[in-house]
Amino acid sequence: MLYLKKYFTEGLIQFTILLSLIGVRVDVDTYLSNQLPPLREIILGPSSAYTQTQFHNLRNTLDGYGIHPKSVDLDQFFTTRRLLNEVRQLDRLSVPSSELNTWLVHRDSETVVSAGGQSSPGITLDNGAGLEDINNIDATPAMRGGGGAPESTYDLNAADSSLGAVAPEGNQEQGSGGGNDDLTKEDIDLIDILWRQDIDLGAGREVFSYSNRQKDTEEEKPNPQDSKDVNDEQESWRNGINLQGSQPVDGETGESIPEQLPVLGSQTSLSLQECLRLLEATFPFGEEAEFPVPVGNQEVSISNEEVPSTSQGLTLAPQMPTAEPQLDLEQQWQDIMAIMELQAMDVNNSASNSGNASNDTAEPTAAGTFGLSENPTPINQDVSLHQASLPSCSQDFPQIFRPQLDSVSVTPRTSMLRLSSGNSTNINSTFGATNLTGVFLPPINSSSNNVTSTPNLPDPFTTLLEESMLDEISLLDLAMEEGFSQAQASQLEEELDSDSGLSLDSSRSPASPSSSETSCSSAASSSSTSANFSEEGAVGYSTDSEAAAVETEEGAVGGYQPEYSKLCRMSFQDLSQFNGLPQLDGISHNHTYNVPLSSSFPEHPDLLLSAGKKTSRDKKLQASQDLLDKHASRDERRARAMKIPFSNEKIVNLPVEEFNELLAKHHLSEAQLALIRDIRRRGKNKMAAQNCRKRKLETIINLEQGVQDLRRDKARLLKEKMEFIRSIRQLKQKMQSLCQEVFSQLRDEEGRPFPPSEYCLQYGADGSVLIAPRSGAAATQQQSRKPEKKQKDKKK
DNA sequence: TTCTCGTGTCATAGT
DNA sequence: AAACTATGACACGAG
C-alpha cells in the first residue's frame, strides 16, 4: 500500500506537472474532494480520525504539550490549529487548494529573487521561489484565493516578449530575451496555439499584458507612489482581492482572461447550445419547420451579430463547447461560497470591507471574478454562477448579497430570480426582446401576431414538465430549509462537543502545571494517612510527559496524601461538590480520563502546600475522601489494594519500553504484575473505545453533512434545469414568431403565400433555408411549386 | 419501573 | 510474536 501510494502519488504529480506545463489547468482538489475516498486516501493517507497516531512521538515534536498524548482530543487539537489557520487566512479570501504550479523557466543566475509572499499550499516546483518577486504576491494568492484564479501563470505577454522565459513578472525584465534560443519549436508552437486560443476568445495578446505593463511601469518609475500602488495591491489582496489572479480563467489554458471578456461567455453559449439541443431533443414532433435543428454557421451568425458584448461566449464554434470550464468555475465558485458562508456567519463586516477595498482598485477583483466588482457587499452564499458575470444585474446585488442567514428559505427563491434574470438577459439580448416578465411568468403566447394558420401548439409536455419542476423545487426549498437546520444542528453539536469539557484548559490546573510533575504516585508504601488509604494502594495519574521527571522521584515517598489523586479521578459531578476547593474551580465537565485531572493537581500536595496551609484544606479533603473513593475506578481501587507503586495513568500511557523499565524497577509480585497488565490493557481499550465512539459520531455527522450537500446540489441542478426549460420555451416561441414572419413574407412565383399549415422551413447545414411541404399530401401540391430556396437572415 | 444514554469492559480481528 | 488498535457486544449506573 505504501509503495502504491508513493508510486501513484509521484506519477500523478508528474502527470499534473506535465499538464500544467502545457497549460492545462490541473486542480488536484477537484479530484481529491470528489467521491473518491480511496484515491484521496492513497494520496493523502487515511484521515486523521482513522490514523493511529504515534502519540509519543507527536508529543515530542509538536507543540501539543497541553494535550494528553492519548487523548482523543489530539485530533481536535490539530483540527483546531488547522481551523485557526484558515480563520487567519480568511481576510485573504484564500481557498485552500492543492494545485500544481509550474513554469517554463529559464533561470538567469543573476536574477534570482528571493521568494516573496507566502508559500502556497500548492506545490511550487524548483525555481518557483526564484520566480516570485514582490509583485508576484498578486499571483500567488490568486492561485489560492481567486477561486477560478489562474493556476498556471503562463503569461502570454511574457511569452510574447521573450518567447520562452515565461516566468512570472519578476524576472521578466531582466530575463527577457535570454531564453529565446532555448525554445524548441514545440514550445513556440504551443505558445502560439495558446495565443490563438485567446484570440479566438476575443482577447488580443495585448490584453493579457496588463500586469506586466503595470509592473513595467512601476519598474520604470520607481517612485513612492508606485511603491504605494504595490502596497495597495498587496493590501487589497489581503482584503480578499486579488488583482491579477482574480481574473477569469480560461478553463482550457488556465490563463487569465481580461475582464472585458465575460467569464461566463462560455456559460452563456453553453446555455444556449444546451437549450437548443434540449429543444431539439424535446420537441421533435412535427415542429421541424418552426424549430430548426441548430447547425453550424447559423448559430454563429445569430450570436455574433446579436450579442457583440458576449460574442466571445456566444461564438458557437462548430465544436461543442466543453462543459469543463463551467464546471470548473462552478466548483470553485462553490468553494468560494463555502468560505463565504463561514465569513458570512462570523465576519460579515470584514467581508464587506474587503468588498469596499475592491472598489479602490479599478482592477478586477476577487468579487470581480464573478462579475461583482461593482458591488462591495459580501457575497451571498447562494449566488449562482449564472448571473455572476452579468454586470447588468448589479442592481440586484445589494439585495442579493445582503447576508441572509436569517432568511434562508427566501434565498433559493431570490437566487432563482437572479438566475432567471441572468438568463433572460442573455435571451433578451439575443433576440432583442425586453420582456423579462416572460421569464418568470407562465409563457404568455408572445407570438400573438402569429398567422392564424400557424399551429401554436400548447406543448403539454413542457407544461407538465415545468409544473413538476416547480413542485420539486418547492419541495427542495423545504429540503434546503431542512438542510440548514441540520447544519445548524451539526454546528451546535460541534459547539457542544468543543464545550464538552475536553478542552485543554480544563485539564490544566491554574495552580501549577509543572507541579504536576511531582505527581509521582509511588506513595503506596506510605500508610501514614488513613485507614482508607491503607486498604487501597495509592494510585494517581500523571501525564505521560511527566514520566521523565517522575522517574527520578520514584521511591522518594513523602507524606502521601491520597486526596488529590482521588480528586483527580472523580467525575465532574463529584467535582461539583467541591467547588470550594480552589484547585477545582477551573474544572468542570471533565468526565474523561483522557485528560487526567491528576495532571492538574499535585499528587504530593505537601510539596506545594506549606505545613501551615494544610490544615483546613486537608480537613475538607479528608472529609470528602470517602466520597472520592467511591468514584475511583475499579482498577484504581484494585491498584491501591494491591499497592501498585505507580499511577494507573502511567501504567496505561507509558510507552511499552518505559513501561517495562518501570516494571523492572520495582519488585512486584505476580498478582501485581497481572493487575498492572490488566490495568494497561483495560485502559488502552477504554481509550480505544472512546476513540471508536467519537469516530462513529463524526462519521454520522459527516454523512449527514454529505446528505445535506447532495440535497443542495440536487436543488441547484433542478433550478438550472428549470432555467434551461424556460430558455428553451422562449427560444421556441421566438422561432415560431420568426417562422411566421418568414411565411408572411414568402410568396411563390405566382404571388401566392405559403400557408404555414402546409409548409415548413428546413435549415441546411450551410445556413440555407428550404421551404418544404409539411405532409405528403402537401408534397404533391408542392410539386407544382418549385422549392424555394432563400437565404434567411437571422437578424432578429 | 422502564427506557435511554454514556461509559467501561471483554472478546476478537486486524495492524 | 508482541504490542497495539478497532469495534461489536454486553453490563452497569445515572437521569
TrEMBL record:
Listed GO MF terms: DNA-binding transcription factor activity, RNA polymerase II-specific; lipid binding; RNA polymerase II cis-regulatory region sequence-specific DNA binding
Chief place of localization: endoplasmic reticulum
Biological processes, Gene Ontology terms: cholesterol metabolic process
Chain ranges of the BZIP domain: 675-738
Region (Disordered): 210-235, 350-375, 486-539, 772-796
Biased composition (Low complexity): 350-359, 499-536
PROSITE patterns recorded: BZIP (PS50217), BZIP_BASIC (PS00036)
Domain of life: Eukaryota
Signal sequence segment: none
Any single Pfam family the record assigns to this protein: bZIP_Maf
Biased composition (Basic residues): 787-796
Coiled-coil parts of chain: 700-741
GO terms for cellular component: endoplasmic reticulum membrane; nucleus
Membrane topology: Single-pass type II membrane protein; Single-pass type III membrane protein
Alphabetic keyword roster: Activator, Cholesterol metabolism, Coiled coil, DNA-binding, Endoplasmic reticulum, Glycoprotein, Lipid metabolism, Lipid-binding, Membrane, Nucleus, Repressor, Signal-anchor, Steroid metabolism, Sterol metabolism, Transcription, Transcription regulation, Transmembrane, Transmembrane helix
SUPFAM superfamilies listed in its UniProt record: A DNA-binding domain in eukaryotic transcription factors (SSF47454)
Subcellular compartments: Endoplasmic reticulum membrane; Nucleus
Record's compositionally biased regions (Basic and acidic residues): 213-231
PANTHER family linked to this entry: ENDOPLASMIC RETICULUM MEMBRANE SENSOR NFE2L1, NUCLEAR FACTOR ERYTHROID 2-RELATED FACTOR
Family statement drawn from the similarity comment of this UniProt entry: Belongs to the bZIP family. CNC subfamily.
Protein name: Endoplasmic reticulum membrane sensor NFE2L1
The organism of origin for this protein: Xiphophorus maculatus
